[in-house]
Amino acid sequence: MGTDIKGVAIIGTGFSGLAMAIRLKKAGLEDFVILEQSNDVGGTWRDNTYPGAACDVPSHVYSFSFEPNPHWTSKFSPQKEILRYLQHCAEKYGLRPFIRFGSRVQEARYDSESGLWTLSIEGREPLICRQFVLASGGLSRPSYPKIPGIDTFKGALFHSARWNHSFPLDKSRVGVIGTGASSIQIVPAIAPQVGKLSLFQRTPAWIMPKPERRYTNFEKILFERFALARYLARKILYWQFELKAIGLLKPILMRIPEKDAKAFIDREIESPELRAKLTPSYTMGCKRVLLSNEFYKALNRENVEVVGEGIERITERGIVTRDGREHILDAIICATGFQVTEHSAPFPIHGSEGRELSKQWSEGAEGYLGVSITGFPNLFTIVGPNSGLGHNSIVFMIEAQVNYILKAIQFTKQKNVKSIEVKPEVQDRYNKDLSKRFTNTVWSVGKCDSWYKTASGKNTTIFPGFSFELRMKTRRFHAFAYKVEFEGVSAKSRLQEKMLRVG
Ligand code: N01
What we know:
single chain; 2 domains
């Protein structure tokens, strides 16, 4: 039985995993492998195939800075176009030979003596690596609602991120649970097709018009021929979105866009009762602000009903709401988001001194710069704790973190390092500073529950600042923030030693 050993193992082929692999390859560090549980690249853009799936961040900024795409057909691209873009990146940068598809990691275990990680992979030989990059994404594990009776429903029941394309929507009675970013794209896409659509709303979302438009051929030629045009488009979009952070950090300012959003509801929704039902009571920005030109229009349709009474239970035939009414349904679509804060590690990850990541994070995930975690040497996360954004392109954060991780890996290679681990006092200081920075932000005072926060109210997902701040913090690798252990013997002989032990 041969044992597989690599310098770096990356988990996932979404934006994060591909960016990491591209940067490693460009830096001449080709001793890496990418483990992908599915059979294609694309991460969330491969998995979310629901009708209407599109990005609510403009494509010229929701793409890699080093791989601009002059051919985006519209300002906000549909899912298929983004998936094609990611597939193109994998091809262009020659990543496919590095990817092992169908490789579901079940467990990761660190060995302090050798400084190596062993990854157990379902149905395959384990893989040993020095550095382990978790790029599996925060929005990859669907969250199904814990509603009594959910298992008894006799019709079709599926999650927005696992769309059942064989279910015939035509003239059927469909219930959609949730009114988040996915739902507001699904509802207008399927409403004209289904017989009856019941939308089960627990909390209304703040929704703004989407400044959507198709790019003209002239613009596409301009983007293709002139790098300056692409550069400017990206910069302008970045700053348009970045300025929105000001309101999130100073929530009193959100009263201005709230007025616009209420005016939008008044313009779009015909029934006064429905307007009241759709008007949020929390401060805008506390949950993700959504963009749609079609959602409210769809709610005016005769075959669409917004049910705000709250779900009591699910029966064999449909959904019973708290007012005692049974909504008879052929299908229930759970647009109920993802497991983000509840089960923060995607599989058991055992670090040094018997630590297990989910246990360590049971009170809420913590890390350093969203990339390193105390107790987990040689492990890096992309879009780890507190590095998500509520206002701008996550690809910007991904590139910043990938840059940092690359520099960390280069440091370990140049200095013949066995292990690096962020110092506990550095991580503590960083997290104390983050929690101070959350005080008075919209996420703390906006009076809402959201997937950004744990049940106890700790915000573990959002970076409470401007995205360029994280970029500045990650420009250089902070060796001083880490416990560094150097190799006594050469790295190669360590690997061979380990191979002999496992093989
Ligand atoms: O999920 P969500 P999503 N009973 O968690 C409701 C990204 N994304 O898939 O608000 C009844 O936002 C829940 O209600 P409440 C983006 O980052 C991006 O829509 O908790 N309802 C809420 O309405 C986004 O933030 C794009 O009261 C229940 C909804 O389900 C993230 O993905 C597109 C319930 C869940 O909303 C997740 O979005 C799509 C229950 N038991 C998604 N449980 C882009 O365009 C939950 N809900 C980039």
